[in-house]
TrEMBL record:
Span of domain GIY-YIG: 15-93
Protein name, per record: UvrABC system protein C
Keywords associated with the record: Cytoplasm, DNA damage, DNA excision, DNA repair, Excision nuclease, SOS response
GO MF term (any one): excinuclease ABC activity
Gene designation per UniProt: uvrC
Native source organism of the sequence: Aequorivita aquimaris
Ranges of residues in domain UVR: 207-242
Amino acid sequence: MAHASVTLQLATLPDSPGVYQYYDKDGKLLYVGKAKNLKKRVSSYFTKNFDNNRTRLMVKKIVTIKHIVVKTETDALLLENNLIKNYQPRYNVMLKDDKSYPWICIKNERFPRVFSTRRMIKDGSEYYGPYTSMKTVHTLLDLIKGLYPLRTCNYDLSEEKIRAGKYKVCLEYHLGNCLGPCEGLYSEKEYHENVEAIRNIVKGNFKDSLHKFKNQMKELAAELKFEQAQRVKEKIDILENYQSKSTVVNPKINNVDVFSIISDESYAYVNFLQLSHGAIIRSHTLEIKKKLDETDEELLQLAIVEIRQRFNSLSKEIYLPFEVELGEDIKTHVPKLGDKKAILDLSERNAKYYRMERFKQAKIVDPDRHEKRIMAQMKKDLRLSEEPRHIECFDNSNIQGTNPVAACVVFKNGKPSKKDYRKFNIKTVEGPDDFASMEEVVYRRYKRLLEEEQPLPQLIIIDGGKGQLSSSLKSLDKLGLRGKIAIIGIAKRLEELFYPNDPIPLYLDKKSETLKIIQQLRNEAHRFGITFHRSKRSKQALNTELETIPGIGEKTVVELLKHFKSTKRIVSASFEELSKVIGPSRAKKLVEHFSNKS
């Protein structure tokens, strides 16, 4: 229920697009949001029942609502992004990234230098980037240096000073890396033509440079200047090699931004690819920590505005995995097939790889975060009321109807807890009856936990379909545990999960982590159950075999087992050891029987 003053503020909100701000009793900014219709959006916070605890907590704290009306939804999106960046409210997702990325600067001077920098100075110089990898910057600068001779000195090369002979050429000139503009040996016109070619290369357009070098090479070859022609050919090879590495898409796809999003319960990862002249000139992935129940659409919309601002992208076309409202000036496209779909898939693959890397790092650096994320994901995927920190999985093993046994494996915080595993001999069921066996072991397991006042699991998984699930429910009913522990059945097709009183199974995504953990549980239960079954079957076979030896009766077998504890030890015991227990004549019969077998 909203506070009285909040109710009054809600009543006066306009139906226009805009940005709203929530403040607490101390005037602290809690949250900034945007809306097509301010009244509808803000009111929904006070009428909806939120699953997310953080959202419920935030709504309780709201005392003041402020709003700013804007013309369009796009304006609202830009304003929201700027306010979040400036004030960093507690409940907003953080799109901040404190890194200062490198740029390539073409300096504003008569003979421009080209170099990398992390500081932008507004002196009329051109800055290309920012680049997310210093390696890319070094590669590009090496490429430029190899193709075009530019100066590296920081002298003021004004016309008067050069004419006055103020400077002398340096070592760079003698090495052939600079053509000596300081002594007027390199014309300003030619220097600027080279700088223009560099601009194109930095933008990802190699076509003009390649064309120029190929013509140059032909001219030199025609003049029989083969050595110089060879040097130009080397430049062509360098350019083509660089181009082939960066071109992974159709060259017709020009000046396009590509965005994709991968998200889980706690985090989202937005990948950005920038394409120019058929080449990927930039790739960046942004990690976003979710604060409330943000949708992928909301997160992607915010991330696009932030990333485009940060990387100064002016592309008028964007490829997206689903429609997102970004204003009339930007053309959005959701590719379904062909080269455009391939580039969107590539972006998604980059986001997935980044997410996997972050998971691996988190596992090492912050195992708690990794656990929390998996538990939150399982709770959501399996529609549970609480996180399944303690899971127990049951499996029956009665191969060819003999020695019916069952296994119970226990996972705590998503990992096997082997000391808690339990095995059961089926006592009350005659013959192979999976349903009755499951009913028996589930009853015995939880009757014991209740008697010993041990903690109960949050989730029980029954390896089997509807029949085994119904049998297990009978046991939970008898113990008064129905509804207190979540229980699901897994069919032979692993991704099919059955719930009590629901004829339609839930299907899990085959790639989901929840399914992987259930798969691991089921495999462990199988392994543990079958190992127990085999050892029991082989023991019984040996016990029966002992009784078939002439002169060895049931009483002798009991005596031997009492002393040696296992059939294996009886088989490997020496004649003297056996004689002490059953006398020399029967010991001799046993030793002869097993030595004949081997």
